[in-house]
Amino acid sequence: MAAPKRGRSASAQSKPGRSLALILIAIVALTGGMFLSGNTTPRLGIDLAGGTSITLQAQNEPGQPNAINKANMDTAVAIMNRRVNGLGVSETEVQTQGTSNIIVNIPKGTNSEEARQQVGTTAKLYFRPVLAQEASTGAAPSTSPSASSSGSSSPSSSPSPSSSASSSEKATGSSSSPSSSATSQGRAVTDALKADSTPSSSTSPSSSSSPSASSSADAAATAEAGKLQAQYAALDCSKSSQRATAGKTAKPSDSTVACGQIDGAWYKYVLGPAAVDGTEVKKAQAVFDTQGASGWQVQMNFNSSGAKKFADVTASLAKNQQPQNEFGIVLDGEVVSSPYVSQSITGGQAEISGSFKQEEAQSLANMLSYGALPLSFKEQSVTTVTAALGGEQLHAGLLAGAIGLALVIIYLVAFYRGLSLVAIPSLLVSAILTYTIMALLGPAIHFALNLPAVCGAIVAIGITADSFIVFFERIRDEIREGRTLRPAVERAWPRARRTILVSDFVSFLAAAVLFIVTVGKVQGFAFTLGLTTVLDVVVVFLFTKPLMTILARRKFFAGGHKWSGLDPTGLGAKAPLRRTRRPAGPVAGPVDPKEA
After folding, report:
1. Residue 179 scores a pLDDT above 80
2. Which of 20, 145, 154, 356 is the most exposed place for a label (fewest CB within 10 A)?
């Protein structure tokens, strides 16, 4: 049974070239893929490439003191992530910090400023009926024959964006400039507010039949209308200081004033209570109308409750004259669109059309899809990292890595001499694999190399070198026992392999735990550490061991040259063990009588 086993072992030892060929093919494939994809350098994070870091602080909603909790914070992070991903800025990092802060890191790029605006727009999204609308002080009515850039209807004679159940059922008709004066608009606001507060037919008889209750409701509506009229008259949306406060603190159940921009000019609105919540928009997307002349449109799908509410409010609005047949899409207290309707829209599907550009339609669709946050946020701080500072940090990180690598090479040459011819190429192979994989992971999973990730790569140099040292020391132990190099390599490998696997498993487990329990940049360190630990196993098994097997056949190493690092004399090797026979005992024979 021993002979076949030795035969198989000899066969395995004689073909280490297979493993070397396999890892060479992997290197060529990864390098070729890197160049073919056009991503020849790893994607850099904000601390290395430059960009903007925004700190947002959650604010308690009126009447909801416990709204800031882990569930709402996690939901806000997920929505913000989807917002910026919808813009194609997928390397943006959104994470919680503490219990009430969210950190948004936006790397420098073509869409970074738009991503910042989208993330900073953190209030809830509502659909509110428009009660009054007019150009703000200093703004001339739009004369463009198309809809505004945001898709809202203009108070000019141009067609307003339509909203319909499907592309084949578009609302028709045009809007006309509001000819009513401020007084007539005020009466419209008062009438609308009274209608909102008037008891419906479904109200109980006791309440509906009470004259005092009815008169109290009318008085309250009149007082509220008067207050709203005063705010509306004083509002000047051309001033940023007034835009910053208009409608920001209004409750969903209250009427409010707000500002909106149309064709570069600011308009002011009086809006009724929220009819549909933004959370009831299931999906919104920008599509191009290939069948008609509408161009880019925004299609909306509501959930079941939203579909019913939207059908009710559009049925009510369709009976009114312009602008009270419009609904304002309000995000962060600002009207981003105010399309009109001419009929009830049922079925949970609607469409906003106008003279949209592609970017404008996609921006509005993103707001509708991802605009409803469970909390309001205040921008606490904004930090900008310049590309120059990021370059300095990258240079410092690469310098630290080069110094660490040089120290490891000096140590290997000084203590292991010729064995460094195995260790240094192994380190080079590990570096090539790490670099190409990081470059490919950038576009694949949006991996961004940040400063902690560079630190993880530097730490990995020591982990890889440690695996070589374990293997070399096992070989030296076998030589000290008096064995020649080739059998020493094969006997040392199983023991070294077991130690290397256990050590790398512990390192990988630590990296995995760190990646799971941490957030942000620390995850970059953990990911890089885990990746390089796996590559260490690959390199040791497929490159270091086969290369050592080949070099063990060379006279320089097999003969124990003093510069090979495997000199038996320098290692204090024992003399080779030899089997000796015991001397034979005296031959028994007849006893001489004389001696007896």
Report:
1. no
2. 145
